[in-house]
Amino acid sequence: MKIAPSFAEINSLFTNGDPKEVWRKASEIIKLINPAYDFTVARTTFNDVVRLFYGEYPGYCAIKTLYHNLHHTMDVFLCAVRLMHGVHISGTRLTDKEMTLIMMGALMHDIGYAQRVGEESGTGAQFTLTHVGRGIKFMQNYSVERGFPSDLAGPLEFIIRCTNPAEIIAKIDFPDERTRLLGQLVSSADLTGQMADRTYLEKLLFLYLEFEEANFGNYQSIHDMLAKTEDFYANIRRKLDNDLGGINTRLSFHFKDIYGVDKNYYLESIEKNIAYLAKVTKLSQEKHLAMLKRGGIVEKSESLLAHIKH
């Protein structure tokens, strides 16, 4: 008999700061789909992406963006693995190649923030509007350099494009419906994985700093961003349900298989974040940041913002 997860176990679903632990969890889930799965390409990509974030990849500096950091990529990656397990056992069987594409897409969706040696100014947030295209070019060159099968790069371009907030999924000319499905899955994991993070609200301060550096968005202040995030989430829910085909709901199949509980813990975590945000934004602005206490993020972001202003 399967036992429902404890509060600590549920919280640990979104604690993805250790790449080694993330890979352990992911590989165990993949083996549930296919015990004989060949991890070579996925594991190589995982290791190289981690190296890229750490500044250990030849020709590149460490990725310095505070919101779109390694933890964010690990959140998205593990959410994508859990979601593809849910999709698979719900009846939409995935091939080994499709699983590899999903993992590579999740791992490489934000590598366009990486700065090459020689372009170290700023944090990389200046590439906010171009990071998807930069990431696709990196992926294409990387796939050739690593000698990966030539039939991966083509679908990966479409999958990564789906994570671009400015992209209209319905207008993408996918080569086939299976590639559309994979793109919807990775894009759903990108949105769901980041918003379920227990420090998501605090990390909005980091996102605000990235947008400031990129001169992007119409936020007048961090308080303005917090106030507008509820409407942003309403738009995200519509996108998940419509443009992305509601595929995120199949996370519940994963959790029922693992814990015997028919729940979508990602959605529950997001709803808790948004409910708490509603409480925060009802207060006066001077009380907002005092309500966001996790991870020491407020203190770091305030220090950075003060530095920028001076």
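^ that was protein a. below is b, sequence first then the tokens
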Amino acid sequence: MSGFVRGVYIVWWRDVIRYWRDRTRVAASLAQPLLYLVIFGSGLSASLGAGFAGGTGVSYTQFMYPGIVSMSVLFTSIFAAMGIVWDREFGFMKELLVAPIDRSAIAVGKALGGATQAMFQAAILLLLAPFIGVTITFVSAVLLLVFMAALAFGLSSLGVAIAARMRSMQGFQMVMNFLMMPMFFLSGALFPLVGLPVWMTVLTRLDPASYGIDPIRRTLLGAPAERLALTLFGETVPMALEVAIIVLFGVVMLSIAAVNFQKRD
């Protein structure tokens, strides 16, 4: 067990150091969420006004803000798994696979490394809350960290599970782009998940990101967001259940990733 934990720590710490030293990557990964927030938020907020979401009094920029924070978590956590493909192409993954540690430690370390990077990115975006007109208290900040950690873990595990079977950077990017954009648009980051067609309602409820973004929005926006909360069978989904769903999804994906790493390369 000590060897497993040490292996997880080394893999996690290496990914964190690589991420922190690449300042250009940190800045670039913040550009896309800010672009969405400024252009979509400002443009559509002026067009739709405060009544776009059933008269909740929430502007579109305020509604979109939790979705942009979650967008940073989604993109950063999944694309962090690209390091697995990179390490495979340049030979470092072979050294990890022959190291005297359980190969599942590589999967766990990579997933935790991606989740840590995603949480750091999202935490930076939380500093914009006062400029959006959103108030964050100490209690809500703690809850947000928990919800962001759950979402980052689930999505990072998904990225690791896919990257463990990929052999080229180009293939990984194509699969991720094909998977991430529908996941993002169906998650409720850009529009409320109420009053949708039946087929679209089903897809949004099957999207794991929906269960990570909803508690973040409800925590950031408070009571007005409760009218826009995610529902199943006509009942509002408790935030604790949403966290449990996304964590369970992450555990399943991480198990698949661990199995993939156990297979000989």
